[in-house]
Design brief:
Radius of gyration of chain B: 13 Å
Structural class of chain B: mainly beta
Distance between the termini of chain B: 41 Å
Number of helices of chain B: 0
CATH architecture of chain A: Sandwich
Order of helices and strands of chain B: EEEEEEEEEEE
Number of domains of chain B: 1
CATH architecture of chain B: Sandwich
Largest sheet of chain B: 6 strands, mixed
Strand content of chain A: over 45%
Number of helices of chain A: 0
Number of domains of chain A: 1
CATH class of chain A: Mainly Beta
Strand content of chain B: over 45%
Oligomer: heterodimer
Largest sheet of chain A: 7 strands, mixed
Radius of gyration of chain A: 14 Å
Number of strands of chain A: 11
CATH class of chain B: Mainly Beta
CATH superfamily of chain B: Immunoglobulins
Number of strands of chain B: 11
CATH topology of chain B: Immunoglobulin-like
Largest interface: A-B, 24 and 24 residues
Structural class of chain A: mainly beta
Helix content of chain B: under 10%
Distance between the termini of chain A: 37 Å
Order of helices and strands of chain A: EEEEEEEEEEE
């Protein structure tokens, strides 16, 4: 398993500003993921962050809006830029555990609850 | 396109009243199905991975089963502390292990 922490746990921000969310893992992992969970919805993958390479963004998400850093194997940041009320959501960091070709579960951080006013 | 559908959306049970949650999926070459529990205001907590039809996993009052088209999460004699949203997820196809999540079942267990 993996223990994941996120900062901040919650924030209220004004539209047009940016917020950087930090994710720290207690062990080295190759792949880290950033998800968004809007109220009443399931998890939507924003991007995959691999150390030493550019993040890979899912359809509907772009680097200018959600820049990601991955400076080492235990840390990543997600920035929500030029925020609007539609960005109000829970943002979750996650890591994937695999055993050979079999996928095991992903482990999630506690989430960052963002409210944009 | 791969899809994961969970039912019911919401379920209310009395303490001790057993029931099952359903997760149906359409994906080619299943390489695992995951169940998670999510409490309000928290990230999902990993519960089980199932890899092949007929497989079962148990944890306390929860038992997960898998067929070729769906998975069930059976809750036996639930307690109020079992109240949570239960999510299932299936890795995307095409060599990706990234899971597609269902919308979840919100379970409330009344004392």
């Amino acid at each position: 398993s993996a223990v994941i922490s996120q900062k901040p746990s919650r924030d209220i921000c004004q539209r047009g500003t940016s917020l950087t969310i930090q994710c720290q893992v207690d062990s080295q992992v190759t792949m880290m993921f950033w998800y968004r969970q809007q109220p009443g919805q399931s998890l939507t993958l924003i991007a995959t962050a691999n150390q030493g390479s550019e993040a890979t963004y899912e359809s509907g998400f772009v680097i200018d809006k959600f820049p990601i850093s991955r400076p080492n194997l235990t840390f990543s940041t997600l920035t929500v830029s030029n925020m609007s009320p539609e960005d109000s959501s829970i943002y979750l960091c996650s890591v994937k555990i695999t055993t050979g070709v079999l996928a095991k579960g992903q482990y999630f951080g506690p989430g960052t609850r963002l409210t944009v006013t | 396109e791969d899809q994961v559908t969970q039912s019911p959306e919401a379920l209310r049970l009395q303490e001790g009243e057993s029931s099952s949650l359903n997760c149906s999926y359409t994906v080619s070459g299943l390489r695992g199905l995951f169940w998670y529990r999510q409490d309000p205001g928290k990230g999902p907590e990993f519960l089980f991975t199932l890899y092949s039809a007929g497989e079962e996993k148990e944890k306390e009052r929860l038992k997960a089963t898998l067929t070729k088209k769906e998975s069930f999460l059976h809750i036996t004699a639930p307690k109020p502390e079992d109240s949570a949203t239960y999510l299932c997820a299936v890795p995307q196809g095409g060599g990706s292990y990234i899971p597609t999540f269902g919308r979840g079942t919100s379970l409330i267990v009344h004392p």
